[in-house]
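Section handout, structural biology tutorial.
Before the tutorial, make sure you can parse a SMILES string by hand: atoms, branches in parentheses, ring closures as digits. In the record below the ligand is fe (ii) ion, and the chain has 242 residues. In the tutorial you will relate the predicted structure tokens back to the input. Do not try to memorize them.
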Amino acid sequence: MRHAVLSLFLLFNAVFVVIAQPFTLPKLPYAYQDYAPYIDAQTMEIHLTKHHQAYVNNLNKALKGTPYDDYTLEDVLLNKSALSSDAIRNNAGGHYNHSLFWEILAPKAKQGAISADLSKEINTSFGNLDSLKKELNKAAMSRFGSGWAWLILTPELKLAVVSTANQDNPLMHLDAQRGIPIAGIDVWEHAYYLNYQNRRADYLSAVWELLNWQIISEKYQKAKENTALMGRIAPLKKKKKG
Ligand SMILES: [Fe+2]
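Predicted structure of the complex:
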């Protein structure tokens, strides 16, 4: 009987250990070399297996034993108390941001078309796709140091371009425009230094060759329909005049 209880105890702990490490590295949709010549295979491999893996490992470590260790990634990103820990904030952001980045990139031959809905909304908000490109690139180029440039859907269901520092993202409680990310561009040097050294503008041109507008359109549609998540993101407070 004692053995049976001990076995059950060990089994429970074994299961618990697995559950206590909830976040895992996603697989890239394509092979490392498929993103070349725009992003080289070595950069893709190091970016995923070293940088992104480190965010996943450190996130699991940072959440262990906290009240947030069974939260979903979105729940963590939306929780102000959880984000008061730099380790949770940086690594939860790092995991979310990179997972989204891999999803929206595809080699030319595998890219799908933009939806009529998203195309119309881009024209309404920015004039045309080229103007959106200029605005996103401006946000990416003017981000001092490391960070991200984003296309988001705001709580008012408008498209907007924003930029965040480090591994922050627009789901977090920032003193900036919040929203659900539709597309994000990583402008950390680790994303481009091997091939482009300090030439961030050249890397941005290359990223635009890899954007899969079919996936971005699907993300736009899902964000529009995700009223539960949108309801948890407060609109940006207007600054008082005077
Ligand atoms: Fe990165």
